[in-house]
Write a structure and sequence with these properties.
- With 86 residues, the chain is mainly α.
- 59% of the residues lie in helices and 0% in strands.
- The protein has a domain of 54 residues.
Length: 86
C-alpha cells in the first residue's frame, strides 16, 4: 500500500512539473484515478472478450447461427484495484 502511495505522489509531482503550475482538485482526482487503474487486472476482461469474439467468429464462419447484431454492454468495475474509495 505504501508503494502505491509513493508512486501516486511521484506521478502527481511529475504531472505538476510538466503542467508548469499547481494542479487543481479535479485534475488531481483524475490523475489519481488514472494512477490507480494501472493496478487493474486485465485477465478477466481478456477472457470474457476473447470468448465472446471467438464465439461470434465461429457463428459468422459457419453461417449456422446469426452473429450478434445488437448493443453489447460489459461492466468491468470489479477489475480495478480494491483500495479505490468511491
Amino acid at each position: 500500500m505504501f508503494v502505491v502511495w509513493l508512486l501516486q505522489s511521484e506521478f502527481l509531482g511529475t504531472a505538476a512539473r510538466l503542467h508548469g503550475s499547481d494542479l487543481d482538485d479535479a485534475m488531481k482526482v483524475l490523475l489519481t484515478e488514472l494512477c490507480r487503474t494501472c493496478r487493474g487486472r486485465l485477465n478477466p476482461v481478456s477472457a470474457v472478450f476473447g470468448g465472446f469474439v471467438g464465439q461470434e467468429v465461429l457463428k459468422a464462419c459457419s453461417a449456422k447461427f446469426t452473429p450478434l447484431n445488437q448493443f453489447l454492454y460489459m461492466d468491468f468495475c470489479e477489475v480495478g484495484s480494491e483500495d479505490v474509495q468511491r
